[in-house]
């Protein structure tokens, strides 16, 4: 067996799976992450409300710069809410994709 064959076969023997009891405090860490997701969603809703108000004020006062900033704020707030809400699904999806590589 030559060196190239040995190098190519070496990574195939590794089997590592995540476990939820390997480190102490995993349960508390899950609670902290869940609370952080909740705070992120609440802040995204607050940003959406403030941005919508800025958009409305800019549109009603004929201020295109303010209206544009409000529109951008609405899009950013919606994007943040989507990322916060879908973060677990995104991580699981990319974890499964990485397992197939």
TrEMBL record:
UniProt KW keywords: Membrane, Transmembrane, Transmembrane helix
Transmembrane stretches, start-end: 38-60, 72-95
Keyword Transmembrane assigned: yes
InterPro entries given in the database record: DUF6112
Name used for this protein in its record: Integral membrane protein
Native source organism of the sequence: Nocardioides agariphilus
